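Question:
When you can, review this sequence-structure pair and walk me through the tokens.
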Amino acid sequence: MSVTYRLWATCYFATTVFLVLFLLAAPSPAAELENCDGCHEEVHVSSTVHSEIDCSECHPNIKQDPHEEENLQVLSGDQICLQCHDSASEIIASDHNELVCADCHGAAHDVAESDENVCADCHRRAVRIVGRSVHAGEVMCVDCHKSAHAVISGEDPNSPTAPVNQIQTCGACHQTPAEIIDGYLTSLHGKALLISALEDAPGCADCHGYHRATAVDDENSPTSHSNSPEMCGACHALTLSVFRELSAHGKAWEEGNEDAPVCMTCHESHGFVAPHDDDPRLGFVENCGDCHDEYYTTYRDSFHGKATGLDMAAAATCADCHESHKNLPAEDPGSSVHKDNLGETCGACHGETTSSFLSFDPHNDPKNRDDSAEVYFVWLFMTGLLLAVFGFFGIHDMLWLQRSLVGMARGEFKTNATTGPYVRRFSRIDIRLHLVVVLTFLLLAATGLPLKFHWMSWSQPLINLFGGLESARTIHRLAAIGTLAYAAFHLAHIFLRAARKERGLFWGFDSLVPQSQDIIDIARNVRYFLYLGPQPGGGKWTYWEKFDYMAVFWGIPIIGLSGLVLWYPNFFSQFVPGWVLNAAHVIHSEEALLATGFIFVFHFFHTHMRPETFPMDPVIFTGRIPLERFKEERPLEYQRLVDRDLLQSIITDPPSRAELRNAHIFGFTAIAVGIVLAFGIFWSIIFT
């Protein structure tokens, strides 16, 4: 055996021995730690969360096996958990900062998925209450309180359950209907809490409860009919006291009447707004009407009701007379509408009042004889007059229309001449007076009809064109003054002409007073309409023109006097009983309907819309009419002028192009406005 071989064998042996000793001395690898239960038989890992985790992932300080306790780095309590679960900062800032992980999650070897039972270990009563609430089985603690690691007291403004944050926390689930969240955000309560930062302002839980929240219609709910006044009274204590002791509503509620109105009957629960603001004040009328439908109807028929129906906030609502929380029957001496208290109640708006004024019935139904026989007979007369006029002229003008159409088809009428000599039909005074009549009448109609038909969709926009009802009322009164002024001027002018010995003003050929000949002319015209006779010749004034004139002559004192009574009720009630105020309202309203309906339908037809003159007769605006047309339409007047040699005195030049242009612009505008208003009248009557 050579020396070289022995040297190689020695080195190989030494190397092998060294490697074996090295391997024996090296620490065991981590994989060998998987068999920890070989030594730790008492440890049982039952965790469903940590079932896939090796021992070394939670105990990384164990580097060798066997390991001596005195050589181990200490990892106790939350230090083990925080190696993976970095939530220390949240827990330190939370109300759970004195707890360790195991207090909620249990020992690491037994950790399971968290549920509400974890919270119940400490908060048994709260969990039990939630279990009986509307949230039972639907909502877990963390849904409201958020992460358990970051739980803070509801008194902390940063807490999700703090009043200022409840709208977001509760709103995460209660997003529908939209008025719940949107209503609260725009409500007086919501603005007080979220904008003004008033700590005492109510959040969701103040009304619905915290853990004890129940369905809103549950009899035990704070928001139920039987409990809601006390819920609101927790803040509104004085109002609750008045409601209980001095309100018919409150007394009915305390007696257990389920139909008795409570806070939320009148005030929106989530969209609660300041009750004295304009919109809610006007809206309360509808709330009252839900129960008091009979009084609601008569209220809406009164000026107060019509005005509030057109958003006039200054007009009296139900609560202004009956008081909101202190409403008592009229026979109760404590009632604001008791006869001994009416002076103070009505005087709040109307100042010093008379006994006659106080006998005015704001809820009068003119169609009910038992309310007031006097007002009932006034209504009966005005309604009969309206039906008689509309009935007669409706039939009359329909017959006339069909006869004119047939006559035009047959070529019975001569073409209206626009050349040749003209005769003067109206004086400059007549023309200017008529312009004033047209302007004032249209203003009166446009500002008055929306009040009569206040419930129609077209009424509010029309009133808004005048700047609201307050402005429209001022314009209406100015137009009324203009009407009385032109009526006075017209009468003065007539008497001045009479003083100058002008003949025929009050009777005869030049008079607008109806006479026996007019009855004969009506009969002859009806025969003509029915193809039983020729078309009768006209004089200076036809019977329909006389009726048009007398409608205004009759209407102005009737509608004017009733309007003055309504304008100055305190003054007139010194001389007349209270029912006259009710009667004045009926007269003014019905006469206005008669006047506007007659002018916009029958007068327009007689003058402008019949086929012979369609689409407009400019004579009243220019004062002149072609001689040929004058001879055809008024042969009796033409012959009278010829016989008396007066025709030449009224021959005049044709109107200029500018005069005709202005006449057509003004005339078509007035006719268009009248037709639109007439459409509104009939639409309102038909669809009411």
